[in-house]
Amino acid sequence: MADDLCFFTKDSFVFKAPKKSPLVLRMIVLVFAMVCGVYICSICLKQISTTATAGFLNVELTERPCEKPNIEPSEVRYVHFPKPISYSRAECACNPVRYFAILSTQRSGSGWFETLLNSHINISSNGEIFSVKVRRSNISSITETLDKIYNLDWLSSASKNECTAAVGLKWMLNQGLMQNHKEIVEYFNTRGVSLIFLFRRNLLRRMISMLANSYDREAKQLNGTHKSHVHSPREAEILAQYKPSINATLLIRDLKQVEDTVAKALQYFNSTRHTIFYYEDVIKNRTKLVDVLNFLKVPQRDLRSRQVKIHKGSLSEQVENWDEVLKTLKGTQYESFLHADYQI
Ligand SMILES: *[C@@H]1O[C@H](CO)[C@@H](O)[C@H](O)[C@H]1NC(C)=O
Ligand SMILES: *[C@@H]1O[C@H](CO)[C@@H](O)[C@H](O)[C@H]1NC(C)=O
Ligand SMILES: *[C@@H]1O[C@H](CO)[C@@H](O)[C@H](O)[C@H]1NC(C)=O
Ligand SMILES: *[C@@H]1O[C@H](CO)[C@@H](O)[C@H](O)[C@H]1NC(C)=O
Ligand SMILES: *[C@@H]1O[C@H](CO)[C@@H](O)[C@H](O)[C@H]1NC(C)=O
Ligand SMILES: *[C@@H]1O[C@H](CO)[C@@H](O)[C@H](O)[C@H]1NC(C)=O
């Protein structure tokens, strides 16, 4: 037994000897772990202290309300100081922002009009947001989308590095606007949104543009790509080569339908702060843009667009069955559409 024990101790001694160096190793690992722990703790503390100060700063910012600019009392509801969730407005935080929406119909120059507005450093118009169906599927997704835009949380190519003074979108009448007009008017009035209606006077020209555009959607005349707007005279020339044929039987009915929709929209949204512009007027007289900027209460600036008009010149050159169209509209309330009303 003693022998056994002795053997055991001897044995253990024999085993322990080589364990001496792992002990040192263990100590090194322990010290290393401690150093790591202290390092991680110090980083955590640092982060906690920075978020704490950031939170403190935020509280300080939100607690100090921005001074309302010196404006008439009736204007106050149209002036906003949005606080985006996705970033800080920093030095722009107290720059007042106006909310707007461009209400229009397809092929009425609103794309061109919007590029003009977006050339202003303080205007951000986010495009046809409601062309995407889910965003207009019901009033709650509509208001949710609008909230995000007007809170400056909608990031698009129209977002500006400069201080935004007017933010909005382009909205076609057939994109949920007419169906949900009651709730949308209420939203516009409670949130203080100003409306710019942009319509086309010559609905026959608009119809030609619609037909040509839908033809190009299939034909893709520009090297296999479909373009609704172009930036070079050569591209415009290629697209204008196509002459649509207009269904004379449906012509009057179709023109009337558009006219009625426009009249109805003006009636529905009559209680909002709004203004009406016509594409032809802006084309003929660029000074009209001064009125647009005044309406949005943003500083006057030169506005530019790189877009080139596709259909120009005489209408009779642009329609395949011109004689038929002429015969159909002569003597009707739409006869004036037959005459070229502007030249470029
Ligand atoms: C509204 O539409 C969105 C998106 O289609 C959907 O997720 C949501 O459930 C709908 N809400 C109501 C109240 O119908
Ligand atoms: C327009 O943007 C500039 C540059 O950020 C800014 O200095 C100016 O105050 C802005 N104007 C308005 C009316 O917000
Ligand atoms: C089509 O592609 C050719 C060759 O790349 C180019 O020279 C021409 O300008 C393009 N045309 C248009 C309308 O973009
Ligand atoms: C015009 O439209 C009517 C009604 O949809 C249709 O019956 C007729 O075939 C069309 N005419 C032409 C030339 O396409
Ligand atoms: C809008 O309201 C004004 C004043 O109430 C009225 O004179 C005008 O005719 C209305 N316009 C439409 C299109 O309903
Ligand atoms: C052009 O538009 C401006 C601003 O609306 C207006 O004052 C001016 O009279 C217009 N000029 C012409 C020639 O119509």
From TrEMBL:
Gene3D superfamilies: P-loop containing nucleotide triphosphate hydrolases. The chain crosses the membrane at residues 23-40. Keywords: Membrane, Transmembrane, Transmembrane helix. The keyword Metal-binding does not apply. The keyword Transmembrane applies. It comes from the Eukaryota. InterPro entries: Nod_factor_sulfotransferase, P-loop_NTPase. This is Sulfotransferase. It comes from Vitis vinifera. The lineage of its organism: Eukaryota, Viridiplantae, Streptophyta, Embryophyta, Tracheophyta.
